[in-house]
Every structure is written in structure tokens, then in C-alpha cells.
Amino acid sequence: xxxxxxxxxxxxxxxxxxxxxxxxxxxxxxxxxxxxxxxxxxxxxxxxxxxxxxxxxxxxxxxxxxxxxxxxxxxxxxxxxxxxxxxxxxxxxxxxxxxxxxxxxxxxxxxxxxxxxxxxxxxxxxxxxxxxxxxxxxxxxxxxxxxxxxxxxxxxxxxxxxxxxxxxxxxxxxxxxxxxxxxx
Length: 184
Fold this sequence. Notes:
Residues 1-17 form the signal peptide. Keywords: Signal. By secondary structure, the chain is of the alpha+beta class. The chain has a single domain (28-181), classed as Roll (Nuclear Transport Factor 2, Chain: A), CATH 3.10.450.50. 36% of the residues lie in helices and 30% in strands. The chain is built from six helices and seven strands; from the N terminus they run ααααββαβββββα. The protein has helices spanning 2-17, 19-23, 29-44, 50-56, 88-99, 162-172, and strands at residues 68-75, 82-87, 102-105, 108-111, 116-126, 132-145, 151-159. Strands 1, 2, 3, 4, 5, 6 and 7 form a seven-stranded mixed beta sheet that branches. A hairpin with a 5-residue loop joins β6 (132-145) and β7 (151-159). α3 runs antiparallel to α4 and α4 (50-56) packs antiparallel against α5 (88-99).
């Protein structure tokens, strides 16, 4: 009987450690891909309120919109992580507000086995639906999902030319070399 009990325990331990079992604790790639696509869709909306509604449908924040969702932008060449949101609500607000400055956002998508999705994007700056400014930058946006398929972190790496970045930082009163003293 000891052999049977030991065998049963070994079998149970093997089942818990198997790749199929571990995969159940990660948000499925199809789900993370769908939500990544919704981000670009939200930026494509033009009707009043539609951008907010589209961002609101994405599960930013652990346990709901008031939950944690650390969101940073890392501009090329600065080494800074600029925080732009700390909750799901903050991310929805940031997305809605930045939509006003973007005339076009494109996306190519990739998913990873750890529950992260990547959006490779080109963003064209310009006043929404008015005269576009002929300036496009590229970026990589990582959406990190927990096992409940809530987005708990967003990391946006933006390849913005240093000249444009310096100008924007100066307009905002942010010294480009002083990453630790950012007023956010």
C-alpha cells in the first residue's frame, strides 16, 4: 500500500508541475492579443466619447479600473521611465487625453508565453482630425497581464528624435538630463 500512496503522490506532483498545468495560470495569448488590438482600435476612434469608451473596455488595473496598473513611457535616449498612470483609471484617462494629439496609430502584434503582448506601433502626431503635423515616431508597447487577464503594467518605449524630445521637455519645464526630478 505504501508503494501505491507514494506513486499517487508522485503522479500528482508531476501533474502540478507539468507545462499544461503551468499554462493555466497565464492569460491566454488569444486574449492578450485581443486586448492589444483594442488599444490601437481605441486610438482610431473619432466620435466624441468613443475613445474613452474603447479604452474603458480594456482591463487596465488589477481587480478593476481602480486597481494598480503601473504605466510608464521610456523615451529613446533619455534612460527615463516617465510614469503616466498608476491605476486602470489613470491609464484610461492618459489614453483618452493623448488621443487628442495623435492623428494616426498603427499596430503589429506579438504575444509571449508569459502573458505579455507587444504592440509595435507608428504614431503620427497632429491635432485630432485637423491639420496633421508631419511627424511620426515608432514605439513598442508591452502590456503585462496577470492570470485573471487584468493588465497590471504598460511599458511604452518611444523612439522619438532627441530634438523633438528636447523641445517637448523644454515646453513642459522638464530638464531632459534630470530623470530623477520629473514632476509627475
